[in-house]
Amino acid sequence: MSCTVLIVEDDPTVLAFLEEGLTDRGYAVVSARSGGEALSVLGMGLDDIAMLVADIRIGAGVDGWEIARCAREIAPDFPIVYITGDSASAHELEGVANSRLLQKPFGGEELAKAIEALLP
Hints:
This protein is α/β, with parallel strands linked by helices. The chain has a single domain, classed as Response regulator (Rossmann fold). The protein is 40% helix and 20% strand. It has helices at 12-24, 35-43, 64-74, 91-94, 108-118, and strands spanning 4-8, 28-32, 51-55, 80-84, 100-103. It has a 5-stranded parallel beta sheet with strand order 2-1-3-4-5, with helices on both faces. Helix 2 (35-43) packs parallel to helix 3.
């Protein structure tokens, strides 16, 4: 699996768990700790990034829903996995089409399966 995943997560412990789980499975990882950081990465283009894994609530400013919408403006079929501890009920209303949502806590295997289900 040699593709790059953009992870957006503001909790350092959760971010470390996600980074380790994905790199152990052969993915390259680019991390953003805020919506602003994520939008900066997306602004550089998606040529090197294959997928977005975004926490929904990431502090003040842009949330995971908006980051995903921005990614889809750049690439309409861009794979999105949302992760959340408390916003799962809003996925149908706020989430982009053909995305996945994982409710925290989840395991590395669950994340890997969600990613693999969306990658071509």
